Amino acid sequence: MLFLAQSRVQLQSLHRNAALFAASRGVADLAITLSGKPVISSGTGGRSSRTGRVATVFGANGFLGRYLVSKLARQGTVVMVPYREEMRKRFLKVTGDLGVVNFIEFDIRNMDSVEEAVKNSDIVFNLIGRNYETKLFNFNDVNVETTRRIAETCAKFNVERFVQVSSHDASPDSPSAFLRTKFEAEQVAREIFPLTTIVRPSPMVGQEDKVVRKIIAWPNIVVNNGAQVIRPVHVMDVAAALKKIAFDDSTAGKTFELYGPDEYSLDDIRRLCEYEGLIRYSQISVPKAPYAWLTDKLNKLIWWPIGCADEVERMTIDQTVDKSAATFADIGMAPAKLREYLGGYVRPWRGNLFQDVAPDSIQERKREREFIHITR
Predict the structure, then answer these.
(1) DSSP assignment of 239-297, as one string?
(2) How many CB atoms are located within 10 Å of the residue 25 CB?
(3) What percent of the chain has pLDDT over 70?
(4) 124 phi/psi in degrees, rounded to 5
(5) Which of 74, 82, 101, 339 could pair covalently with 106 via S-S, beta carbons 3.0-4.6 A apart?
(6) Where is pLDDT greater, at 269 or 32?
(7) At residue 250, does pLDDT exceed 80?
(8) Is the per-residue pLDDT at 167 higher than 60?
(9) In DSSP terms, which residues pair with 38 in a beta bridge?
(10) What is the pTM of this model?
(11) What are the residue boundaries of the NAD-dependent epimerase/dehydratase domain, all occurrences included (predicted)?
(12) Taking residues 316-334, what's their average pLDDT?
């Protein structure tokens, strides 16, 4: 009898809590999508909450994709992660609560697998891209045909939002095949899915980037003494912007260019890395033509990525900004400046015992080593 009484009290308590939770739900928990579908969120906004939305992220295990999945999953958006390689997607599982991050094996040439990844989603992101061509996929295959198949699938299943991540300087008359096909992919996406949102991020800086990591690696090979001008942006800012864009239906059909607040040449960034790292980073400047020829030949012989001729071509293109495109400001964001976060990515490679101030010159560091013995 005592057990039954306790059970009755616990049941009454559960009903009371459920009633209080229902009463606490407000208009802010309800969102109406473009098609008129109601989406109801629950929870306080943490990992165990639910936004009521389902998102598919193609290219989720890439540099930008991993941060986007984390941004979505940490607040309860159910994320579908299409993958090709089993070992390269496992780390994404812990970015969300149980049942939030789900994996689907797919092949872009198998439309059944693409449809399986898209059919239950409200939002689809296409982050698939490759800086170099391989024996199986060229730039047109990766950028244009992949986008075509994903956009057709989104249109077939009446997906609410499709976000196509392109590239800065995408142009139909660019000397780079990569940038030309990126622009063509934008046109294909808009033709098939008119409300496609195009996002063109600048070169991104982060833990696994190809800007700072290339500088601190050896050898750091550049063209024109690193005179190429870019507007670097923090990858976390781009991921946060993609999430805001996808959840804001007023951005549908628009084009965004997400770039940092300041312009730098690659040589300027190298000097900032030296200041933060307290070490000299060597840089080798080579002529464009022989470097392009060499990388083109090696890319066909060696299986690991070493660049390609088109990537060398891109190293000579200064970044330009499309003034007609929307920016961070249009979604209420202000991107961080490079100096604010660069040190966090360079400091682990510092080469000096004293890490509070930068040396004025290499000669000063040599004089310090006459009196200080460093054991590595």
Answers:
(1) HHHHHHHHH-GGGTT-EEEE--SS-EEHHHHHHHHHHHHTS----EEE-HHHHHHHHHH
(2) 12
(3) 85
(4) -125, 130
(5) 82
(6) 269
(7) yes
(8) yes
(9) 32
(10) 0.84
(11) 56-245
(12) 95
Kind of pairing between the strands at 161-165 and 123-126 = parallel
Domains along the sequence of the chain with CATH: 30-208+231-261+321-337 (3.40.50.720)
pLDDT band at 338 (very low <50, low <70, confident <90, very high): very high
Closest among 37, 41, 40 to 49, alpha carbons compared: 41
DSSP letter string over 3-65? Answer: HHHHHHHHHHHHHHHHHHHHHH--GGGEEE-TTS-EEE-BSSSSTT-B-S-EEEEETTTSHHH
Task: Identify the band that residue 4 occupies on the pLDDT scale cut at 50, 70 and 90.
Answer: very low
CA distance 100 to 91: 14
CA–CA distance, 53 with 237 (Å, rounded to integer): 22
35 burial level (CB within 10 Å; 0-12, 13-18, 19+): exposed
What is the rounded CA–CA span in Å between residue 222 and residue 286? Answer: 6
DSSP-based three-state secondary structure for 217: coil
Mean pLDDT in residue range 194-203:
97
Kindly tell me if the per-residue pLDDT of 22 is higher than 80: no
Instruction: Give kind and range of the element (H or E) at residue 186.
Output: helix 177-192
Residue written as tokens 């789900």?
Answer: 102
**HSE, side-chain direction, 13 A CA sphere, residue 15:** 6
Tokens of 218: 């050896």
For 320, half-sphere exposure in the C-beta direction (CA atoms, 13 angstrom radius) is 11
Read off the pLDDT of each residue in 22-27 and give the average, rounded to a whole number: 48
62 vs 50: CA distance, rounded Å: 25
SS3 content of the chain, % helix, strand, coil (to 5): 45, 15, 40
Q: 92-116: per-residue pLDDT in tens?
A: 999 999 999 999 999 999 999 999 9
Helix (H) or strand (E) holding 72: helix 63-73
Q: Is 270 exposed, middle or buried (0-12, 13-18, 19+ CB in 10 A)?
A: buried
